[in-house]
Amino acid sequence: MKFLKLFFLLLIPFIYGCSSTGGTLGGLFPMPKFMKGKVKNNIYHALDGSFEIKTPFKQGSKFYTYMKVKEKYSNIGTYVSFNTSIYPNEFYRVEIGKKLDKSKPSVPFKKLVKVLLQGYVKKLSVYGKIKVQRRIQTRLDGKKAVLVVLVQAMAARRSYQGVSPSYSAYHMIYIVKSPNGGGLVWVQWPNACHSCQSGSEAEILASDKRIKEYFKSFRLKI
User: Fold this and answer.
1) Average of pLDDT values for 104-114?
2) Can you give the pTM of this predicted structure?
3) What's the topology of domain 2-220?
């Protein structure tokens, strides 16, 4: 059960507890990035070596210049997210949970998916009505995985940029398990995704080149 609990200790950490770097000042001026992890050739390398993934926005582009990175590292897991003010409702996240006692048996994958999914749906529901749209058994980085698609009605909200209108968001989440832990690779997509309704995994990933490259570049190192 410790393996399940560690994920809940990191549940929705983008609300609090993360250090952020980059982004903008007042929505206008780009701020420097002082990341804990390293970006080399558009690949983010986690500080603790737990994973690697392609940044959703290429180095040198205006999207990268205005990109904010949130990071949280601990002995039980890692959380990293990417977001640019140019596309403020797009979020790209990775969450890694580490098995604390490697001598203990692993949690059954089916149970892991069920508990994590219930937890995330409950936490995310405070932002708007949410439901599970799809669940596809697959593999990611050569490991057993499930792709879950959630659809959510996001309420209008106010920020320094003004009022953001309500919209439908798709949460595309891969849950991956390895012998010594597991990971969630997550894209929050604010645009239309017709394939998310009934399309295949390949069709869902083809919704946008950035989505496909982000997921396919993920490497779990634990």
Assistant:
1) 83
2) 0.86
3) Protein Transport Mog1p; Chain A (3.40.1000)
